[in-house]
Backbone:
C-alpha cells in the first residue's frame, strides 16, 4: 500500500530565508510524487510533480523539490520565502504502473512565513 | 473552462437528512475523483470515475454514500441519513486519463451536520 509521511505539522520561517517542507513516501514500485498547496477556503493547487528524470523538479511560484530514491524522500524547497507562501502544503504519491490509481496524501504541513 | 466547479460551497444540514453535492470537472478530463478532508488531515480518497464508470470505491465510502457520473460529465455525491461524523470538506478533482497527469481540485463543499 502507498503512504506518505509529512513529519512536521508546522514549519516557521522568516521572510527571505530558505524553506524546506519534508516528505517521505512508501510504495512497492516506482513513485509518482506531487506537491499541492492549500490556501484558506480554497481548493488544493498543484505545485509540481516528479515522474522520472532529473531529481530536482521546478514548479510554480519559485518552489522546487528534490527526489531522493535512497531516502524515499521528496522535500519541497524554496530559496527565499515570502509571507504569501504561508499556507498548508500536501505531499502526495501514486505508484507507477498502478493504472492511474488515486493519489494518496500526507497529513499536510502548515507553513508560516514571518515578516 | 475555468477549472473544477463544486456546488454548493457550504451546506448545513440536520442529522438524518440527505444531502447531495455536485462537481463539474474540467471539460476534457475523463477521470473524476471525490475526496474527503477533515480538520488537520490530508484529503482521503472516496471514489473515482473514468467517464461514467465508477472504477474504485474506498472502504471509507459507507452504504450511506453514493456517487454517480451519469453521462461522463458532472458527478454527484449523495449522503443519506447524515451523521455528525460526516462533517468535513468534500473535494472533487479531475484529470486526464494519461497516467502522468496531475489532478486539478475544486474549492470543495464544506458540510456541517448539526
Residues:
Amino acid at each position: 500500500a502507498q503512504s506518505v509521511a509529512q513529519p512536521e505539522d508546522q514549519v516557521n520561517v522568516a521572510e527571505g530565508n530558505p524553506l524546506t517542507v519534508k516528505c517521505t513516501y512508501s510504495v512497492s514500485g516506482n513513485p509518482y510524487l506531487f506537491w499541492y498547496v492549500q490556501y484558506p477556503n480554497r481548493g488544493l493547487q498543484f505545485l509540481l510533480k516528479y515522474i522520472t528524470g532529473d531529481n530536482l523538479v521546478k514548479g510554480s511560484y519559485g518552489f522546487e523539490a528534490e527526489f531522493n530514491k535512497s531516502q524515499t524522500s521528496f522535500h519541497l524547497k524554496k530559496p527565499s520565502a515570502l509571507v504569501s507562501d504561508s499556507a498548508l502544503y500536501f505531499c502526495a504519491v501514486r505508484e507507477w504502473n498502478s493504472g492511474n490509481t488515486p493519489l494518496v496524501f500526507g497529513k499536510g504541513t502548515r507553513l508560516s512565513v514571518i515578516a | 473552462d475555468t477549472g473544477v466547479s463544486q456546488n454548493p460551497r457550504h451546506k448545513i444540514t440536520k442529522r438524518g437528512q440527505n444531502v447531495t453535492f455536485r462537481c463539474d470537472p474540467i471539460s476534457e478530463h475523463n477521470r473524476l475523483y471525490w475526496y474527503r478532508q477533515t480538520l488537520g488531515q490530508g484529503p482521503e480518497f472516496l471514489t473515482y470515475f473514468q467517464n461514467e464508470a465508477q472504477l474504485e470505491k474506498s472502504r471509507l465510502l459507507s452504504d450511506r454514500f453514493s456517487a454517480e457520473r451519469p453521462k461522463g460529465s458532472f458527478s454527484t455525491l449523495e449522503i443519506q441519513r447524515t451523521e455528525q461524523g460526516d462533517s468535513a470538506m468534500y473535494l472533487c478533482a479531475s484529470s486526464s486519463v494519461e497516467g502522468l497527469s496531475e489532478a486539478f481540485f475544486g474549492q470543495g463543499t464544506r458540510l456541517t451536520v448539526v
In short: The two ends of chain A are 41 Å apart (CA to CA). The interface with chain B takes residues 4, 32, 34, 36, 41-46, 49, 51, 90, 92, 99-108 of chain A (CB under 8 Å).
